[in-house]
């Protein structure tokens, strides 16, 4: 087998493993609307979004983002928002419940 093909297969296998490790259930995952007033607010949010296992961007507008927060990150998220004076609004308390209701 040519080395490049072997490498591509290796990467593809890795990607499969990754997708298996993403949570199967969204139990207690919540979605927050975050009001972005300043550039620094935006930076705070962008930094959080780098933690892809805890934060997922759902929707982005100029002065507003919707992000899904993992149950383990929720407390820390709210603490940071309070500290940075960023206004948030809870949109969905339990994403899994919503999925179940729609299924
Ligand atoms: C979700 O939250 C409820 C209420 O706090 C708790 O009883 C339950 O164990 C949590 N589920 C998971 C999977 O963490």
Automatic annotation (TrEMBL):
Domain (Carboxypeptidase activation peptide) ranges: 32-102
GO MF annotations for this entry? metal ion binding
- State whether keyword Zinc applies: yes
The cross-references to SUPFAM superfamilies, in alphabetical order and at most eight, read: Protease propeptides/inhibitors
| Signal peptide boundaries | 1-19
The keyword Ribonucleoprotein appears for this protein: no
Protein keywords: Metal-binding, Signal, Zinc
Give the highest taxon in the source lineage: Eukaryota
Note the InterPro entries from the entry: M14A-like_propep, M14A_act_pep
- One Pfam assignment: Propep_M14
Name of this protein: Carboxypeptidase activation peptide domain-containing protein
What organism is this sequence from? Drosophila suzukii
